[in-house]
UniProtKB/TrEMBL annotation:
Pfam families: Exonuc_VII_L (PF02601), tRNA_anti_2 (PF13742). Residues 11-117 form the OB-fold nucleic acid binding domain. Residues 142-456 form the Exonuclease VII large subunit C-terminal domain. One of its GO terms (cellular component) is cytoplasm. The keyword Cell cycle does not apply. InterPro entries: Exonuc_VII_L, Exonuc_VII_lsu_C, OB-fold_nuc-bd_dom. This is Exodeoxyribonuclease 7 large subunit. GO terms for molecular function: exodeoxyribonuclease VII activity; nucleic acid binding. It catalyses: Exonucleolytic cleavage in either 5'- to 3'- or 3'- to 5'-direction to yield nucleoside 5'-phosphates. It is found in: Cytoplasm.
């Protein structure tokens, strides 16, 4: 015969839930400080409550996960403290140290009721991550690599990494595109996430894209709209910092208002802090160059004007000296020519007088001799006398012709007449030149004409 089954003890679900609740409350009756990563805040604006998702990871894997609740009153108080300490509200992805109660509810199960969160722990964790990144970059000797990249004199072609909707991007473009001096820039946006889980991968990928077309750009600008230390944690990440440090051209950053620089800002060629100041930094390069050009232009004009004035004064002084010297030299040479002419004229007159005297004496001698001969030789025929007379006349005519020719030659030899016929006297260092070997190419000559003088320079000679 079949055995009669013993009656089973059964519980309702609510009884089990009540038992679990009683057991947990008896075991976990205190509040506990717990560390975890707040994966999502899950804030509900209509109620003001939050239902954070808490995780613990090890080697990149989730090893624990729990739900929690943060009531509106506690959330408002904690959020205000985060804004005060971290300059940033409570948000997703933070590592937190929080005070919580372990609770159980029949419908929601076990969860942690967060009572308080210590913002200093979150800040310290961010600083530890930052320090680790810095030490690693320095150990690899790449920390200041981008600092040594040379920024072009006029960085005109800009590759921009930013979110397309970023207010900071708008501020940056307004500065460089609407500058009052009308400097022209070429810029291209490489859109990227600047915070959150995708930020690191997104920024590194855009740097890689820019590297492929690096010859089109002078500089890379990473632009973000600002924020507190927590919002900038992405830029303490090793992958981003390493990519910036190793980048082949200069990288400048304008990613926030924080006085505590991120690692990305520290390794960049220049950190302008804000998007606006980044634009002003680039404009200043053009202003500096413009100033140099303006000063050089002013200096060149001034030096040229001074040089022209100096040369004008020297030219006027030289012209004055040349005129004075020329006048003196002309006057002196004119005196010399006049003196020589007088000497020649006097000599000619003296010679003519002497010749006339000689001719007169000769004539008398001839007549005397003729008379004497005639007296002694009366027996000679008249024909002989006529011959003698004719010979004497011919002699006299010849002598007169010679005297006239001599007079003409003397007149021809007069320097004034020689100069009248187009001849000239060429002097070098006040000495008349008769041989081309006595002068050289480049020497200055003085040429005396019938009227006036000419200064010349030797270009060639034969």
């Amino acid at each position: 015969m079949p055995s009669i089954a013993e009656p089973r003890k059964t519980f309702t679900l609510s009884q089990v839930a009540a038992s679990i609740k009683k057991t947990l409350e008896a075991r976990y009756h205190s509040e506990y400080w717990i560390t975890a990563e707040m994966n999502k805040l899950n804030y509900y604006s209509h109620s003001g409550h939050c239902y954070p998702e808490l995780l613990e990871k090890k080697d990149g894997k989730v090893v624990a996960e729990m739900r929690s609740v943060l009531w509106k009153g506690n959330f408002d108080r904690i959020n205000d403290r985060f804004r005060e300490v971290l300059k940033m509200p409570l948000s997703d992805g933070l590592k937190i140290l929080f005070l919580a109660k372990i609770t159980f509810h029949p419908t929601s199960g076990v969860q942690l009721q967060i009572v308080d969160i210590d913002p200093s722990y979150t800040l310290g964790d961010l600083q530890r991550e930052k320090n680790e990144t810095i030490e690693k970059l320095k150990s690899e000797q790449i920390f200041d690599l981008n600092h040594r990249k040379e920024l072009p004199l006029l960085p005109q072609r800009i590759a921009i990494i930013s979110a397309s909707t970023s207010k900071g991007l708008g501020d940056f473009l307004k500065i460089i595109d609407e500058n009052p001096l009308n400097y022209r820039f070429f810029h291209m946006l490489f859109p990227a996430y600047l915070q959150g889980e995708k930020a690191v991968t997104s920024i590194v990928e855009q740097l890689q894209r820019i590297r492929k077309v690096i010859h089109h750009f002078d500089v890379v600008a990473i632009i973000r709209g600002g924020g507190g230390d927590v919002g900038l944690t992405t830029f303490n990440h090793y992958e981003i910092s390493s990519a910036i440090a190793n980048f082949p051209i200069a990288v400048i950053t304008g990613i926030g208002h924080s006085t505590n620089e991120t690692v990305a800002e520290l390794v960049a060629h220049y950190n302008a802090i804000t998007p606006t100041k980044t634009g002003e930094f680039l404009l200043q390069k053009f202003r500096d160059f413009d100033q140099v050009i303006s000063e050089a232009q002013t200096s060149i004009v001034s030096c040229t004007r001074n040089s022209l004035n100096d040369q004008k004064e020297k030219l006027q002084l030289s012209a004055k000296f040349l005129k004075s010297g020329t006048e003196k030299l002309v006057n002196r040479n004119q005196g010399e020519i006049k003196s020589i002419s007088q000497k020649i004229s006097h000599q000619i007159t003296s010679n003519l007088t002497q010749k006339r005297n000689d001719l007169s004496a000769t004539t008398k001698d001839i007549q005397s001799v003729s008379n004497s001969i005639l007296s002694r030789n009366k027996w000679k025929t008249t024909d002989f006398s006529e011959k003698v007379n004719n010979s004497a006349k011919r002699f006299l005519v010849d002598q007169q012709t010679k005297i006239s020719q001599f007079q003409k030659n003397i007149n021809i030899m007069d320097p004034i007449n020689t100069l009248k016929r187009g001849f000239s006297i060429t002097r070098f260092n006040e000495t008349a030149i008769t041989d081309s070997d006595t002068v050289s190419i480049g020497d200055d000559l003085e040429i005396t004409l019938f009227k006036g003088k000419i200064n010349a320079n030797i270009n060639s000679k034969k």
